[in-house]
Amino acid sequence: MARRIANRHQRMTVVLVDTTVFLNVLDVPGFNQNHDAVVEQLRRRLEERHELLLPIAAIFETGNHIGQLPDGRLRRRTAERFVEQVRKALDGTAPWTPARPIAIADIADWLQGFADHAMAGRGLGDVSIIAEWQRQRLLSPRRRIEIWSLDGHLQGYAA
Fold it and tell me: What share of residues in the chain are helix, strand, coil (percent, to 5)?
């Protein structure tokens, strides 16, 4: 009986947070059209005790978008929020934790089918997030694993 109760309190859903979601949570100008809805979804996911993973690709892509903001003052303020949130993820005080680092062998694997992915509108960052979704499915077959994205080509990855 105690084991069943303990299992009920485990996090049953693992959610990979895509760049589109991270940009909205951080309220990055020009990439925040869904900020309120995304923050509300984040609140619900945290209440439901979902385990949130922040893929390395989402960190890099978000940083790139911030670095290209045209207004220097907004760029600075947004970059500071970004740094704060990524540091919190690294030290375990954010609602998400970073996914595992990318290995050279991973990149070599992704390049094998990259031309086909590119033809479907997926970049290498998306390919890395899909690969992490597949890896999580293998690691935790009894848990629901999903990609939380506002991009159509990453929606629907849930099992």
Answer: 55, 10, 30
Q: Assess whether pLDDT exceeds 90 at residue 10.
A: no
CA angle 86, 44, 101 (to 5 degrees): 30
Look up the pTM and report it: 0.89
Domains of the chain: 2-148 (3.40.50.1010)
Q: Are 136 and 146 in contact (CB under 8 A)?
A: no
Residue with tokens 């990259």: 114
Retrieve residue 17's tokens: 């947070």
Phi, psi of 100 (to 5 degrees): -60, 155
66-102 pLDDT, tens digit per residue, is 999 999 999 999 999 999 999 999 999 999 999 998 9
Query: CA gyration radius for the chain?
Result: 16
Collect all residues with Cβ–Cβ distance below 8 Å to 23 and sequence separation of at least 6: 31, 32, 62, 65
pLDDT digits (tens, 9 = 90+) for 36-72: 999 999 999 999 999 999 999 999 999 999 999 999 9
